[in-house]
Design a protein that fits this description.
Radius of gyration: 55 Å
Helix content: 40-55%
Number of helices: 11
Structural class: alpha+beta
CATH class of the largest domain: Alpha Beta
Distance between the termini: 85 Å
CATH superfamily of the largest domain: Histidine kinase-like ATPase, C-terminal domain
Strand order of the largest sheet: 6-8-9-11-10
Order of helices and strands: HHHEHEEEHHHEHEEHEEHHEE
Largest sheet: 5 strands, mixed
Number of domains: 3
Strand content: 15-25%
Length: about 450
Amino acid sequence: MFQTKVNELKSYGNQIVNESTILDNKIGTKVAFTTYVQMLRARDIQFVTFNREGDVKSPNRGIPGLKLSGTEWEKLTDGEVVSVKQDLKRFNQEVTMVAFPKMQGEQFSGGVMLISPISGTRQFVQQLNKFLTLTMVVSLIVALLISWFLSRSHGKRIMQLRKAASQIASGNYNVKVPSSGKSDEIGELTKDFNKMTKRLKTSNEEIERLEARRKKFLGDVSHEMRTPLTTIRGVIEGIRNDMIPEEDRERSMDLVEKETRRLIRLVNENLDYEKIRSNQINLEKETIVLREVFEVIKEQLVYQADAQQNEIVMKVEDDLKVYADYDRLIQIILNITQNSMQFTTNGRIELSGHKGYDATIIEIEDTGIGIDPKDIESIWDRFYKADISRKNNPLGEFGLGLSIVKQLVELHNGSIEVESTKGHGTKFTIKLPSKQKD
């Protein structure tokens, strides 16, 4: 503001210096001189003209002389404009001052000095400072209130996260931090925290499920091994203590051999299951005529089917082919057919196949007792048996067959589904991708 006042005085000073007749104070310039005085007085500006010695030639009322310092006078005589933005003592009041030299060639011949009081400007600045100070105080109070509110709000949300983290640390994964709906950092942290909690809960449930399956597996294996081992031990002790008659020893040895083979089958099926789960087996896929596979299955199970008075029927075109590992495909269909035979007496087991969209569809359907709806999802579990009486059934006796079947089908990038109605039979549907899809 002071610089603006200096610029204003300089503009008027230039006009006065250019009016050389005013500086010469000739009688003919009285009208021009009076005009400048009135115009500047309206703007609260006073001026005086002076000669080369510094004597005031036309003093304006209220200005007692030049009052220039030695340094300022030297600058002025050298042709420089002297300006003072703010002076507190020179004229017994606060003023802004500008002095202009009048040069004739390179000779200093006098000049003009303009003075403007700055008390009004200073009052305005003081009022502005008061307003700014008040604004700063109000802004500070508002900022403190907002900070207090935000800190309390954020503190509450952080405390919720802390309590939730403490519950998770204690093993409680059923925790969900309520979302405030805000998209700030704490809101994003809350979303990520809830996602983490959900995954931890899922992982914990999976761990508990696997632990339950592990305990069940150990119990099932122990149970399955106890019976043959007890039988073998009893026969051996009977022979050693001569408790078994000579004519019964051959039959007893056959029993030991049978139970030993049963143990070997149990171990082999478990090893096979683990190899399949850990992808330790390699599939040698080839194009196979499906009818030939069905005929092999039928030949292997014809005696068991006759024993249970079941009929095995094949419905498949002679040229229908499937792309799979031959041995594993035999294992898949054989296990399912054996499983169907366990639940069927005086019935029919149908092996059928047809071409689907980019897949070969194989169906094994029986007319047996069916599976209870609550047991359908569990039949793929390891060692699961829907019928306890099957423990002594020589076909799929350990409850591993369908678990292995599902793993093998998935290794072929295929899918297997089961449909069953209690008392009306069961149908297994296998879809194996064609060679192009593999």
